[in-house]
Write the structure tokens for this entry.
Amino acid sequence: MVRDITGKHPEYFEAILQLRDSSEAVIDYVEHEFSRGKIPITQALEVKNGLDFYAADSQFTRSLGKRLQEKFGGELVVTASLYGVKKDREVYRVTVLFREASFKKGDTVEYKGDEYLVVVLGNEIILQEKGGKKLHVKYREMMKVKKRE
């Protein structure tokens, strides 16, 4: 469902989608999804290591973050901060941060000095040793996983 923002300020936004260390494929996917969902992007800013999209629909932006993690694999952090009170109701602004993993499914990586194969990039990273033992790694540990050449 497309939320009607008729009568809102031209720079109205409810959510910020922050893409960090992301490939062109991720950026193209995000732009296509916003366009397909007919969600207005009031501003797109280039920042030091990525892009910030200011969007008019927080629910859509949250779900897009989840789809990004499922499709591309990476760290997803969703935060909400109180923006104000309108008609006795608290109004929140949502920030969705997505940081793409530097490795893909099937890559050989090093984690804590051992060599693993990346088996799954979903809600968490699943690595597998040569002996078959699997290791579950949270995305907050993603920076410790290094791709082997």
User: Anything to note?
Assistant: The chain has two domains: 15-100, 108-147. Residues 82 and 89 are 11 Å apart (CA to CA).
